[in-house]
Design goal:
- The protein has nine helices and 16 strands.
- It has 387 residues and is of the alpha+beta class.
- It has a single domain, classed as 2-Layer Sandwich (Antithrombin, Chain I, domain 2).
- The longest helix has 17 residues.
């Protein structure tokens, strides 16, 4: 029986406390080298994919549960579900000067009965909506129903997540997670200061792109091979970290150092500095089918003879995990969205010296974080801001 998972849209781990934030962040960096082989612009929501897989993990048992636990850094006693409930409730609260929405939904074939305990976890801890459709008789209609839900949850930024081929009549269950983020910068860029400037994509390709400019006091870190600038969003509970190689064509070397351990240390080493920043406007989408990536990370049996007996008496197998994401960055702030579907078939004072000059006029990396909950929401690479 096919299961399909969609996602929209990431120190020692103590499984007793705060396992979800650390699990998401570790997963974000374990995924990066697997997906970074894809050339060009790159975006994925580690929080969306991790949450979508956690929905599956809650119904897995035996060796399949062991694999999910290892890859997601979550305990096998399912205590992570309560943590997820707290985080999802916090994100979905209206008491923020920004928008973070995390939504889950389950679609099952009419007549399929799932375990009451599993449905309780999905409903009470993952705040998941429950739906029944007729995949067998009307797979195209079921696909359209799910795609419409995703589009609504992401403010129309993620469309057509599922294709016809992904929802054959043999589909029995689809789990979907959607993440949507929108916020204004704490320090908005002056649109009148934006000018067209060069962006050095490769040694042979130079682009002309709208380059935004701002000067202010930011958390900043300088290393021999990169500069890191943290741009807070309104409310200062979320931020975008820009990691820009010093060498115009030094991104490949920088990506090799882009690990959980290094990034954690970089965050601790940030200091307030005056920064004169140039950053291109950019908008793009990314799409992944993650079966091969997840298999390489260690989730193997789920795609074959997996044990999902915690879901119900049916014999389920995971056919694919699909992830689609969108981001728009301009003078006013950031809008980002992602969907994941599984188908089963302290800082120092500013330095008074001259401002640090940081120009993102070459390919660079970025991370969007919930700094209050210490959760990575999105990880990305800007290779071509004009695309």
């Amino acid at each position: 029986m096919r299961i399909f998972l969609m996602t929209l849209f990431v120190c020692a781990l103590s499984l007793g406390e705060s396992q979800v934030p650390q699990g998401i962040d570790r997963f974000a960096f374990s995924m990066f080298p697997k997906v970074a082989t894809k050339k060009g612009n790159l975006l994925y929501s580690s929080s969306s994919i991790h949450q979508g897989l956690a929905l599956l993990m809650a119904g897995s048992r035996g060796a399949t549960l062991d694999e999910f636990s290892s890859v997601l850094s979550l305990s096998k006693d399912f205590t992570f579900a309560k943590e997820y409930r707290d985080i999802i409730s916090y994100w979905n609260s209206a008491d923020h000067p920004y928008q973070i929405l995390s939504a889950n939904a389950l679609w099952t074939q009419k007549g399929i009965t799932l375990q009451a305990d599993y449905l309780k976890i999905l409903r009470e801890d993952f705040l998941s909506a429950m739906n029944q459709v007729d995949f067998a008789a009307a797979p195209d209609k079921a696909k359209d129903t799910i795609n419409t839900w995703v589009e609504k949850q992401t403010n129309s930024k993620i469309k057509d997540l599922l294709s016809v081929e992904m929802v054959p009549p043999t589909t029995k269950l689809i789990l979907v997670n959607a993440v949507y983020f929108k916020s204004a910068w704490l320090n908005i860029f002056d649109k009148n200061s934006t000018t067209r400037e060069k962006f050095f994509k490769t040694k042979k390709t130079t682009l002309s792109v709208p380059m935004m400019k701002n000067e202010g006091t930011y958390n900043y870190l300088s290393r021999g091979d990169f500069d890191l600038v943290e741009l807070p969003y309104r409310g200062q509970d979320t931020a975008m970290d820009l990691i820009i190689p010093r060498q115009k064509f030094g991104l490949n070397a920088l990506e090799k150092t882009f690990t959980y351990e290094n990034f954690s240390k970089w965050m601790k080493d940030l200091k307030f500095e005056k920064v004169e920043l140039s950053l291109p406007r950019f908008t793009f989408k990314s799409y992944f089918q993650l079966k091969d990536v997840l298999t390489a990370l260690g989730i193997k049996s789920a795609f074959g003879e997996g044990d999902f007996s915690g879901m119900g008496q049916e014999k389920f197998t995971l056919s694919e995990v699909v992830h689609k994401s969108f981001i728009n960055v301009d003078e006013f702030g950031t809008e980002a969205a992602a969907a994941t579907a599984s188908v089963m078939m302290s800082a120092s004072a500013p330095d008074p010296k001259k401002p640090k000059i940081v120009k993102a006029d070459r390919p660079f990396l970025f991370v969007i974080r919930d700094t209050e909950k210490n959760v990575i929401l999105f990880v990305g690479r800007v290779d071509d801001p004009s695309n």
